[in-house]
């Protein structure tokens, strides 16, 4: 089977991401990678929990001082919604509707970029308002490392999805790029999974004290 | 496309290896790189033993001794044992499961080059201001205060090569899950494939904590964070936990493949089915599982409290059960078999008692109160060298000898092999057996010299003499390899005569597409099953057709090279007088990201070998 | 599930069937999403209303776990057939991760 073969709506397979051996391998390999990422983020969470509110002196900012409910809420909504829009994109991918898939991916990227913008604003805010920096305390180091690692994952995801869209804009869907789109969306959901724990464990539980 | 059989010039061959995505060639790359690092780590070991041969020796200075000691451990674990294990896996596993290649040939190559550049980076420290000197465990309290850039080389070098290891782990998991030939069910997989499977899972879950630990240490040393700085609220125990959550599974990552190799060898040369196959599989999985539950036994004396120590002590002792199952199964495999003592078999037979001794001292160390006595003495050094040399190194030497004909198409000399074996075995026990007693007499680890008249002189001298025996054995092995390669007497499919598994059903070395037609597996020890039915070849599972092959690529090398370049920038960034560091980081990362971008934009559909080409290839092909 | 089916002999009927199945699944996804937003609102509201922390912490953790299960099983399709191997590896990773978290909450020397 030629990899760049053209498909019609009727010949398009039901599970295009797993229709070729390469696709199957990519799909499985990426899930395995997510298994490893789980341990990576768990280690960062563990480090954060061990160092939460560990500061050198009484003046340093603590979790309950700095976090802000509305900001976190907006960021969370942006990211959760982007998860749904990427589901829509995959829905249209399965229906062999390239244009709609691209459109939903654009929305996903925009929402992700909005999230990232808020995060940058937030970090800037902490540094200037509370002198809560990467080097000010062990708490600061652990906070920025955990949330920053997630932010870096978001940034990488944006680059990834954008380059996929640009690369394939001219040629539509085939069995070579369908698995690529699919694993990119898996990655995006995983970022969301991590964020659910970040907003719960870091922000909400941080505010509760 | 079929450049396979042609004679090539040196340049073309080099380019071929730099860009290869063929698992058999990547195996050779791993073997060469791992072999070089093994010799390097061995040289460091010799320096250690020469320094410790007599009391108050000044062969090396105390500071230099710390560097040698650190680099010996780090090199042997990360740059010698791991890649040699990967060499065996790459050479054998796809053949054992009847696959044409691994699941991700491109990533396979990327994994190798990341390891290679990481190892190169780490070893360049020798020439760039001094090697790391905080021990292979690099405990944060010590490594944070190590002057110079040694520890930074450790951090960045291991980070890069660790990435390669993680990629290799995922690759083997996907390969074994997705690429097995028809009939090759999980419970028909050879034991080496099984141990590769379990080990890859361990890599997948054990390397991320190391990555995180190294990132934290990097941030602390290079970017002023406070993870391990107690004065700013940090906690140095975090490093110890992260390191050992990785470090203990790492021990099993090394030993399980050796177990797998020995299982193949013992069954082959006893000419008997492996005794208790299913219990062997079960024991392998169980060791992998328990491997994650015991890391804190490295930290008994840290002061985690009696409850934590008790839990981890019991969990550690529990590992003796599956290991014991394996030992008895190997013994019973030989029992009543028609045993043939080839070189690999000699290593296998010598491994059983040697490794068991290491296991027994392991149980002694697992007893937490007793460990307070053993901790940081030569008793521990003796223990882990018994399991790592007596287990892993024996396994690798046996595996290299056993699979040499499959990788290179020619047999290593048996006489020279036996000389190597005997001198290595004698040297090994001479070196390390006495160290148990040195430890019990109170000689601490990691010291660069000892005083006269403390009863330590004779023991240390014996140990040093033993090390020279081992060095001699390795030299003989190298001579053996050279002679064999020069003579290059070609052998057939099954040079040992008693091959049981699929890899022995195809020519040595196999054609670049491995199996012309995927073989049909009809039972455990698939090739043996066919032999017992009076056949000489496998039954094909598919008609002859076009074979899809991946394209070669230089991108894995450039991707890794970019990180290598960026690492220099990151390393010197903390020096205030150097202004070139940020541009170097940016250039390096651009090389890496650029390579990744090219990889993702440029379609790579591979190519097909046509049916007609395959039918012409009568002599080399697999008549599957 | 629908994703495992390949094209049958009658392509246009098949297409219609698949489209319907996909649309149905998409509907489930949207419902899942609505519930996730709802859980998030509860979690934020619980913190905003300042209940006892012994009440809030377990509840928001539970809500997070449920949300993540939704993500994994609906958005990431783990409820479909053929995800056994994947689930094995993901949950093994999770087990190692949780053990690490537990360790860092208990035995890091306070």
What is the mean pLDDT of chain B?
94
The number of domains of chain C is 2
Order of helices and strands of chain B: HHHHHHHHHHHHHHHHHEHHEH
Please give the number of β-strands of chain B. Answer: 2
Give the mean pLDDT of chain C: 87
- The SS-based structural class of chain C is mainly alpha
Ends apart, CA distance between termini of chain B: 22 Å
Largest sheet of chain C: none
InterPro entries (chain C): Cyt_c_oxidase_su4_bacillaceae, Cyt_c_oxidase_su4_prok
EC number (chain C): 1.9.3.1
Protein name (chain C): Cytochrome c oxidase subunit IVB
Enzyme class (chain C): oxidoreductase
Describe this structure in words.
Chain A: Keywords: Cell membrane, Membrane, Transmembrane, Transmembrane helix. Chain A: GO terms for molecular function: cytochrome-c oxidase activity. The complex is a heterotrimer of chains A (about 210), B (about 625) and C (about 110). Chain A is mostly helical and about 210 residues long. Chain A has one domain (about 20-50, about 75-210): Cytochrome c oxidase, subunit III, four-helix bundle (Four Helix Bundle (Hemerythrin (Met), subunit A), Up-down Bundle), CATH 1.20.120.80. Helices cover about 75% and strands about 0% of the residues of chain A. Chain A is built from six helices and no strands. The longest helix of chain A is centred in the middle third of the chain and has 33 residues, at about 100-130. The radius of gyration of chain A is 20 Å and the shape is elongated. The mean pLDDT of chain A is about 95. Chain B is an all-alpha fold and about 625 residues long. Chain B starts with 9 loop residues before the first helix and ends in an 8-residue tail after the last helix. Chain B has three domains: about 20-190, no CATH class; about 190-335; about 340-490. Chain B has 20 helices and two strands. In chain B, helix 4 (about 105-125) packs parallel to helix 18 and helix 6 runs antiparallel to helix 7. With about 110 residues, chain C is an all-alpha fold. Chain C folds into two domains: about 1-80; about 80-110. Chain C has helices spanning about 10-50, 55-75, 85-105. Helices cover about 75% and strands about 0% of the residues of chain C. Chains in contact: A-B, A-C, B-C. Chains A and C meet through helix 1, helix 3 and helix 6 of A and helix 1, helix 2 and helix 3 of C.
